[in-house]
Write a structure and sequence with these properties.
The complex is a heterodimer of chains A (287) and B (259).
Chain A: H1 13-22, H2 28-47, H3 56-63, H4 65-98, H5 101-116, H6 119-130, H7 135-142, H8 156-181, H9 184-192, H10 197-208, H11 210-225, H12 229-234, H13 242-251, H14 256-286
Helix pairs in contact in A: 3-14, 4-5, 4-8, 4-11, 5-8, 6-8, 8-11, 9-10, 11-14, 13-14
Chain B: H1 2-28, H2 45-52, H3 54-87, H4 93-105, H5 108-122, H6 128-152, H7 156-164, H8 169-197, H9 201-206, H10 213-223, H11 228-250, H12 254-257
Classes of the chains: A mainly alpha (287), B mainly alpha (259).
Chain lengths: 287, 259
């Protein structure tokens, strides 16, 4: 921490000095809070998993078929949710980025309003919509499309619909950013050279907005892995995801060491996927 | 041609996004005793039931002050942290950045279980300030992201001008820097409040018998779905709308606030 830079003039040197020498101090109170209420409790809890001095709990988590299935379920749901969010998020992000400012504001409001509405409110609303006597099933029966209500809730499809709804805005926003950053001259050039709109999309937009797609997919996938509220409420106990399993181990079986081992694996998966994505992004940027 | 297709497709996706928010409105005004759609008639019975139930009111009041305290604490800690990250040049700045944003990536269930173990030992379960501390951890990344973005667009010549004209450091901070940052601070504070007001997973573990609004809603959904929840949901959606309007009006652009 030196106190002079080539740019510091004698007049403003004082201000620069203040920032350089004590630039760390303002961060300290927040770091103390993060240590006491984030890092320490999490590390302490993860420690329970190896308290006995063996890795038995990890062997149970990763070795028994029942739990392996939960891992696989979680992974599968996260993959599908990410894919669906991408398919639905790209058009919306693209439209907001390429429309007039007025429509863009409106488009943003209708993405941000669901994003900031309580997940519980939305989950409840899906129960109302998808239930056996819910709005959808009533409507389908009324128009004579089906004779018996479709099982849309308390199963895989209910969880998927609910999760896609919660995570879609996280996909839209980075894709919007990527399309906005794209130089419109490239699109004009492609069109001027006679490319059709589909060709412009496949050859110009898609490759150049790939970083946005990747960023959105990463955040949606990582958030899916640790999802709790939606699978707990819309899965009806039939769709077991990692976070739900961890909660059960604490609240029902009181098996702290096993919950800790499961948490450690979930954390490793999350941080692993996230770091890999970051590494990949940085390499992309360099090449 | 393909543009029209895109608009139609997006209209369908927006319907999917907004449908759950819209559907609770008619249900909350339903005169039926059970969930029925479309509602057979209009009544305010579910709002009355909410207002007459001290449990609901208690939970709402508790969530409001926990949210308020979280916003204040997250701003008090997060804004200096953002200054540090945006302007400081100390060793380990990148590490501090990672730690500050980590609560966004680490699954909330892990934080909740960790704090549950610690708080049970310290007898902090059910204490409102314990929940405030936990919610502040979750709100800090929002405050840091929004404030750092604000500082990045900041014209430092204005600060230098103030100091050149003889203002002290504190005076410059209070009279120039913070007023210019106000839109970012408004957004950051409101986002911190909403993130706490809506938070369920941590509250599920740490609130104990003292319900927050989301926990009360969760318990109700688990036990019996009656349209009181629809009434509460409508009020929630209106509150979020008001906050978004406030951010749009006094805060830093909606776009910046979400990332």
């Amino acid at each position: 921490m030196s106190s002079s830079t080539p740019f510091s003039s004698p007049v403003f040197g004082g201000a620069r000095c203040f920032v350089k020498v004590r630039g760390f101090l303002p961060a300290l109170p927040a770091l103390i809070l993060l240590f006491c209420f984030f890092l320490f409790p999490v590390v302490r809890m993860l420690g329970f998993s190896v308290e006995a001095g063996t890795l038995d709990w990890y062997a149970k988590a990763l070795g028994e078929g029942l739990y392996l299935e939960v891992f696989w379920n979680t992974f599968e749901i996260a993959m599908i949710v990410t894919a669906v969010c991408l398919l639905l998020g790209y058009p919306v992000g693209f439209l907001i980025a390429t429309t007039t400012p007025g429509w863009a504001t409106l488009g943003f409001i209708f993405v941000l309003l669901p994003l900031w509405t309580s997940v519980l409110v939305r989950t409840y609303a899906w129960m109302v919509l998808l239930g056996r006597n819910g709005v959808f099933n009533r409507w389908l029966i009324d128009i004579g499309l089906v004779s018996d209500p479709l099982p849309l809730l308390n199963n895989f499809s209910g969880v998927l619909i609910g999760m896609v709804h919660v995570l879609l805005p996280y996909m839209v926003l980075p894709i919007y950013g990527a399309v906005r950053r794209l130089d419109p001259a490239l699109v004009s050039a492609a069109q001027g050279l006679g490319a059709s709109s589909w060709r412009v999309f496949w050859r110009v937009y898609l490759p150049l907005t790939a970083p946005g797609i990747f960023a959105g997919a990463t955040i949606v996938f990582v958030l899916s892995l640790g999802f709790f509220i939606t699978p707990a409420l819309l899965g009806g106990g039939k769709v077991m995801m990692l976070a739900v399993l961890i909660e059960q181990q604490i609240h029902q079986t009181l098996n702290w060491p096993f919950a800790a081992a499961l948490s450690a694996v979930l954390l490793a998966l999350t941080v692993g996927v996230y770091s890999l994505a970051q590494l990949f992004t940085r390499q992309e940027a360099r090449s | 041609m393909s543009r029209r297709l895109l608009v139609v497709l997006c209209a369908a996706i927006y319907t999917f996004l907004m449908l759950p928010l819209v559907v609770v409105f008619p249900i909350s005004f339903s005169s039926a005793l059970y969930m029925q759609f479309p509602p057979p008639g209009f009544s305010l019975q579910w709002y009355e039931r909410y207002l007459d139930d001290p449990q609901w009111i208690d939970a709402t009041v508790r969530s409001l002050y926990i949210g308020g305290a979280t916003a204040v604490l997250a701003l008090a800690l997060g804004v200096p942290l953002a200054f540090s990250l945006a302007r400081g040049r100390f060793a380990g700045r990148l590490l501090v950045d990672r730690i500050a944003l980590a609560p966004l990536v680490v699954p909330t269930i892990i934080l909740s279980v960790g704090l549950y173990g610690l708080f049970a030992k310290l007898k902090l379960i059910g204490e409102w300030y314990g929940l405030v501390a936990a919610h502040t951890v979750l709100a800090l990344p929002f405050v840091v992201l929004v404030t750092v973005a604000g500082l990045r667009d900041f014209d430092r010549a204005l600060e230098q001008a103030a100091e050149g004209l003889g203002a002290g450091r504190v005076q410059t901070l209070l009279r120039v820097t913070l007023p210019l940052l106000r839109p970012s601070l408004v957004s950051a504070g409101l986002l911190a409040f909403i993130s706490s007001f809506d938070e369920l997973v941590v509250a599920l573990f740490l609130a104990g018998p003292n319900m927050t609004l989301p926990k009360k809603m969760f318990d109700n959904i688990m036990m019996e779905i009656d349209p009181t929840i629809a009434a509460v949901s409508v009020m929630q959606i209106l509150l979020v709308s008001i906050v978004l309007v406030l951010i749009g009006r006094f805060g830093r652009g909606l776009q910046g606030s979400a990332r």
